[in-house]
Amino acid sequence: MKNKCDIPSLETIARNIRTDIIRELAAAGSGHTGGSLGLADVFTVLYFHVLRHRPYEPQWPGRDRLILSIGHVAPVLYAALAEAGYFPKDELLTLRKLDSRLQGHPGRDHGLPGLELSAGSLGQGLSVAVGMALAAKMDKLDWRVFTIHGDGELQEGSIWESAMSAAHHKLDNLIALVDRNGLQIDGRTEDIMQLEPLKDKWRSFGWEVLSCNGNDVGELINAYDEAIKMKGKPAVIIARTVMGKGITSIENDHRWHGRAPSPREAEEFFKVLSAI
């Protein structure tokens, strides 16, 4: 069921998740570090304060659905699932290994509990979420659909087709979050394909728009509380995050988008996190 951890507990969990992200990426020798670290607070608030879910019954029909559209940040999803008890933490060290359930992008066909979507190609998650939310409305079910998107992903046209559809169907059981770290694989989003004025864009598509510091668990809780109260339209939270959050030497460095730490770097990162 829904967890309601207090803010100090959530901050501790977020640090644990960041530590596990480094552990699994260093063991794999490849993967996406920056975005995964930046989203640790978001996943902490979702799994330990917002979502209705049962780790001991992953397919519980009454669960809220979480759609990770940006599948390359799978390390943070896996770390959160393990922290919540969906599978043992030791399995995190099998990330990206042959026959592992923890592939580089989430895949439902590998049998990992807690996954709602196989994610890889960007721009697809919101379409799936709209279908799920509409199905829940048609069947008069009270579970919600939560989605997570990258800001670079918003350059995909399919996102805006889905956004238009969600507003048309008044899907107030759908809550999206945009990881607004301002970076993508090649550099700053505003240099590659300008997104601003981003809030106005979402509003023009009929969405309620909220914003918060995505690395502050208190602000995230407040934003999700407001989004859940919304009636008659979907809501999107534009969460300002820092790529690589928690490891000061790599924060806001787009070169860590798809780079994993070496064993030596991992040891240094552990020391930084333990001092927080």
Describe the structure.
The chain is α/β, with parallel strands linked by helices and 276 residues long. The chain has a single domain, classed as Thiamin diphosphate (ThDP)-binding fold, Pyr/PP domains (Rossmann fold, 3-Layer(aba) Sandwich), CATH 3.40.50. The chain has helices at residues 7-28, 34-38, 40-50, 74-84, 125-138, 157-168, 189-192, 198-204, 217-229, 263-274; strands spanning 65-68, 145-150, 174-180, 183-184, 187-188, 208-213, 235-240. A hairpin with a 2-residue loop joins strand 4 and strand 5. The two termini are 30 Å apart.
The CATH C-level name is Alpha Beta
Strand element count:
7
In angstroms, what separates the terminal alpha carbons? Answer: 30 Å
What's the tally of helices?
10
Trace the largest sheet across and list its strands: 1-2-3-7-6
What percentage of amino acids are in beta strands? 5-15%
What can be said about the biggest beta sheet? 5 strands, parallel
Structural category: alpha/beta
CATH superfamily placement: Thiamin diphosphate (ThDP)-binding fold, Pyr/PP domains
Helix and strand sequence: HHHEHHEHEEEHHEHEH
Low-confidence stretches: none
What Rg, in angstroms, do the CA atoms define?
17 Å
State the CATH architecture.
3-Layer(aba) Sandwich
Supply the number of structural domains: 1
CATH topology value: Rossmann fold
**Outline type:** globular
The percent range for helix content is 40-55%
User: Taking all residues together, what is the mean pLDDT?
Assistant: 97
